[in-house]
């Protein structure tokens, strides 16, 4: 059925230099309507068409705002409406928000928005006080798990999460229904009353995780991953992810004029940007994931080239959708192998960087980051979600620190507090390590807990003349003390 006649705008960061701040604005209009131009201070910007589905055409605009020495407000107008964006000054710092896990496995877009989006309202309140320059969204922006029940052929061919691995390709009507499902869910998600004003005024940088596809993508048995039902769902999820989280056309290569992506062909969807001496980097941990690898050879090469591109940055923010530092549950994962019918737990454990299947890649990532810190005398900050808890950890070698900041979910409910307390105790014992690398989960300043069992989001402050700092905004406990990230 056709969707509402419009949605958006949603802003996507597209890079910055000493003179300009670049964003892409995405809107949806009824396919019968012609898109109006965008009016900015420097003139009029025409629309480019990205896709049309369910009677809704998706258009984008590439906008450039001038940068001054200090922060200033810039405006853009579409038709009779206008919005304000805070442009960071070249001599001031950056102010960022980080969110993850914007839903739940039941697909709770149908829940009352006021309760669902309580923390989005608080983020909006914080933005009014001190404007955010960027919104980092670190995975599971969309919980698409109900796809199995919403598409009839999938409901017949997938039992729980076990697919029909020997059947024929899915019907053309099913492919279309899958694409409709993801398209419609994103339009509804980005149109929610509490999210829409933020998405229209703070440029986002997003990276997906498994629920943006479906639970556990990449960590299921190879024969499941190769099945026709799984591949068709992945294709639909990827097309929608490109449109609604990256601001790209559903297929094709990256736009050469705004190419912040590792891969020109977009075989994987990692991105990298530089703002003065701050580097922003997000590897794609889902597109090429299998039970035996987190990233393909090509994706690793892209990551290493991205790190080289950021040489000279004194602060590196790595968005890792799955936490790079957490407690080491390898003993539990090995035990699960002996218990049938525990697939749900097994793929959750296999998702982790600390999985025994991925330990070599975890060590490789840690060594890459420590090497970057050494050659650039840089601070390394890792932002992650995924675990539905807030947490803070550090890794160190002889000279340098890596700070792990975990914040999730802004919507997903937390696990019981007893579970978080148990993790806190286990984290004192089960610490991932490698030669010359030691890790430790630490209490969140002001909260006194290693794992925060409340809905939460993260604030990052990067002043121009001081070290970065972070604090957690929790649903019940309020705002944590600042943690200095030196």
Automatic annotation (TrEMBL):
Stored Gene3D superfamilies: PhoD-like phosphatase
Descriptive protein name: Alkaline phosphatase D family protein
Pfam families given in the database record: PhoD_2 (PF19050)
Entry's EC annotation: 3.1.3.1
GO MF entry, a single one: alkaline phosphatase activity
Species for this entry: Fodinicurvata halophila
Domain of life: Bacteria
Catalytic EC class: hydrolase
Keywords: Hydrolase
UniProt domain PhoD-like phosphatase: residue ranges: 123-335
Keyword Hydrolase: yes
């Amino acid at each position: 059925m056709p969707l509402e006649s419009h949605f958006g705008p949603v802003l996507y960061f597209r890079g910055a230099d000493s003179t300009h701040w670049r964003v892409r604005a995405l809107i949806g209009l009824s396919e019968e309507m012609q898109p109006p131009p965008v009016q900015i201070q420097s003139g009029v910007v025409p629309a480019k068409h990205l896709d049309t589905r369910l009677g809704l055409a998706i258009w984008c605009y590439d906008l450039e705002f001038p940068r001054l020495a200090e922060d200033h407000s810039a405006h853009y107008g579409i038709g009779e409406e206008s919005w304000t964006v805070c442009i960071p000054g070249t001599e001031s710092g950056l102010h960022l928000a980080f969110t993850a896990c914007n839903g739940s496995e039941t697909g709770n877009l149908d829940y009352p928005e006021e309760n669902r989006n309580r923390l989005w309202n608080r983020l909006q309140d914080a933005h009014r006080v001190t404007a955010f320059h960027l919104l980092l969204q670190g995975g599971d922006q969309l919980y698409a798990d109900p796809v199995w029940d919403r598409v009839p052929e999938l409901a017949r061919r997938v039992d729980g999460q076990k697919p029909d691995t020997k059947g024929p390709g899915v019907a053309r009507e099913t492919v279309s229904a899958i694409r409709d499902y993801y398209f419609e869910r994103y339009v509804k998600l980005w149109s929610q009353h509490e999210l829409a004003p933020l998405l229209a005024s703070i440029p986002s940088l997003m990276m997906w995780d498994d629920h943006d596809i479906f639970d556990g993508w990449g960590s299921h048995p190879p024969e499941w991953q190769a099945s026709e039902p799984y591949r068709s769902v992945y294709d639909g999820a990827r097309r929608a992810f490109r449109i609604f989280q990256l601001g790209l056309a559903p297929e094709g290569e990256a736009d050469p004029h705004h190419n912040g992506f590792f891969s020109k062909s977009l075989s994987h969807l990692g991105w990298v940007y530089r703002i003065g001496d701050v580097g922003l980097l997000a590897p794609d941990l889902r597109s090429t994931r299998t039970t035996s690898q987190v990233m393909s050879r090509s994706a690793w090469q892209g990551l290493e080239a991205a790190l080289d591109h950021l040489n000279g940055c004194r602060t590196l923010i790595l968005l890792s959708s799955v936490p790079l530092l957490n407690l080491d549950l390898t003993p539990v994962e090995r035990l699960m192998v002996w218990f049938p019918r525990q697939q749900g737990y097994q793929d959750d454990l296999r998702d982790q960087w600390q999985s025994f299947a991925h330990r070599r890649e975890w060590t490789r990532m840690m060594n890459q980051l420590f090497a970057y810190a050494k050659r650039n005398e840089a601070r390394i900050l890792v932002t992650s979600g995924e675990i539905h808890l807030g947490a803070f950890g550090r890794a160190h070698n002889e000279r340098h620190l890596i700070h792990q900041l975990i914040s999730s979910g802004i919507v997903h409910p937390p696990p019981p507090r007893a579970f978080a307390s148990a993790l806190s105790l286990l984290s004192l014992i089960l610490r991932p390590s490698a030669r010359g690398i030691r890790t430790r989960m630490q209490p969140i300043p002001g909260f006194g807990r290693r794992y925060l069992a409340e809905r939460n989001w993260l604030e990052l402050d990067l002043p121009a003349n001081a070290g970065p700092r972070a604090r957690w905004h929790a649903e019940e406990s309020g705002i944590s003390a600042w943690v200095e990230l030196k």
